Amino acid sequence: MAKIYFSDEHEWVRVEDDGQAVVGITDYAQQQLGDVVFVELPDEGKDLAKGDEAAVVESVKAASEVYAAVSGTVTEANEALTDTPNLVNESPQGDGWFFKMTLSDESELEALMDEAAYNDFVKGLE
Amino acid sequence: MSDPEETLLRTPLYDLHCELGGRMVPFAGYAMPVQYPAGIMGEHNHCRAAASLFDVSHMGQVRVTGAQAEAALEALMPVDLATLAPGQQRYTFFTNDSAGILDDLMVAREGEGFFLVVNAACKAADFAHLQQGLGKHGQAEMLEDLALLALQGPQAAAVLSRFAPGVDRLKFMGVAEITVEGLRCRVTRSGYTGEDGYEISVAAGEAEALARRLLAESEVMPAGLGARDSLRLEAGLCLYGHDIDETTTPVEAGLTWAIQKRRRSEGGFPGDAVIQTQIAEGAGRKRVGLRTTGRAPVREGAEILNQAGEAVGRVTSGGFGPSVEAPVAMGYLPSELAKPGTEVSARVRNRTVDMEVAKMPFQPHNYFRG
């Protein structure tokens, strides 16, 4: 059963049964950004250390960096976002995923929140 | 620590913005809605298709009076006021001695005097500048008790003429007095979106009633500063402090059209010699439109590079144009690189994005010229 983790920078990391991690931004993040018009994704094979700039998401108004919540190697970028960046708004935790990676240190996941903790965290921001 | 919002000024529509779900942000010392729940893209597209209501009450509205005010104003700005008829407004700017732009503004003849609309961020400095320039020849009064709304879009005239029959015949840059269900308004047929529309000056105490009445019309949606910015960028209109400032001249900025013939030949305004020379010999750099081939927006501050990869200019406004459905930008380039079609590039983060000098406006203007 896939398990999903959340960062305080409004990213989610879903660890699939095969150990691959899928990364994206949360519904709260896409609402804050507004209409996404461009996503710059990391190249396949790129090694990301926790905290590295992993992607850039651009709305009509501004560009925002997405930092790696966990360390690992990028295995696939979501090509669908190239032509349809708006998927990030329509389906942030589904078709609007950003990239997949193999994790280099699974213990980093322990520092992230589960869904209930993240929902509480977001409530505290409102 | 106090909440920074507490120190921000509020327009007469602040409560209405909050009620409508506006996301309030600091802008020029005011708490202003950057967007409503529809979002910047939705608000932008609605304005191009129907009619949108913007609160621009943060801008400065100034009345200038005095028998010699006309000459005193002409000594501060390169506009021809002698040919400015009652019921007409013109776009102009305050210039400094090196022909830099201190602010851009609208000026209309009103009764024995003039009515000015200036940028929010500049209004205190403008007012001091005006008072100093007028001296004993006239008086300037900042009209703090007025709000300013903008109703913009292809259906703006149909909406407003429902309340004020005939206002649809007012021509672009015309000024009229109307009433909307008893509320006295001063309207100009102008705006900052490239669309047809009006700017409506109304007593601060009546602004909310007017806004609610207009928003009750089926064509009208509220729009915030985000959409205002993307709309004006597509229309190729300058944003003060970004595309024009004290270091850019009207000639460099492509605003020579706003300096009428008599003022070009006679001068008599700050920086006149610089402007006359630049008109005669050309300016060394020019404000240009820029398009990209990809989807990545190139934003303000990005360096523009020539074919040799040398930095030759900078983007002054840039973003994604929802109507153009592509990134659009403007910036300054050496005049020899300012011709549409010239290939340049820009540095965005650690990459180089190909760009091409493009004609502005990116989105055709839709003004009513009668």
From TrEMBL, chain A:
UniProt cofactor note: Binds 1 lipoyl cofactor covalently.
Matching PROSITE patterns: BIOTINYL_LIPOYL (PS50968), LIPOYL (PS00189)
Positions in coiled-coil regions: none
Keywords in alphabetical order: Lipoyl
Family annotation (InterPro entries): 2-oxoA_DH_lipoyl-BS, Biotin_lipoyl, GCV_H, GCV_H/Fam206, GCV_H_sub, Single_hybrid_motif
Cofactor(s), names only, from the UniProt record: (R)-lipoate
KW Transmembrane helix (keyword) present: no
CDD domains: GCS_H (cd06848)
Domain Lipoyl-binding residue range list: 20-102
Top-level taxon of the source organism: Bacteria
Sites bearing N6-lipoyllysine, chain numbering: K61
HAMAP family: GcvH (MF_00272)
UniProt family annotation: Belongs to the GcvH family.
Protein function: The glycine cleavage system catalyzes the degradation of glycine. The H protein shuttles the methylamine group of glycine from the P protein to the T protein.
NCBIfam families: gcvH, PRK01202.1
Quaternary context: The glycine cleavage system is composed of four proteins: P, T, L and H.
Designated name of the protein: Glycine cleavage system H protein
Source species: Aquibaculum arenosum
High-level lineage: Bacteria, Pseudomonadati, Pseudomonadota, Alphaproteobacteria, Rhodospirillales
TrEMBL record, chain B:
GCVT N-terminal domain boundaries: 13-262
Keyword Transferase among UniProt keywords: yes
GO molecular function: aminomethyltransferase activity
Gene3D superfamilies: Aminomethyltransferase beta-barrel domains, Aminomethyltransferase fragment, Probable tRNA modification gtpase trme, domain 1
Highest taxon in the source lineage: Bacteria
InterPro entries from the UniProt entry: GcvT, GcvT/YgfZ/DmdA, GcvT/YgfZ_C, GcvT_C, GCVT_N, TrmE/GcvT-like
Family recorded in the similarity comment: Belongs to the GcvT family.
Protein name, UniProt field: aminomethyltransferase
Gene source species: Aquibaculum arenosum
Gene: gcvT
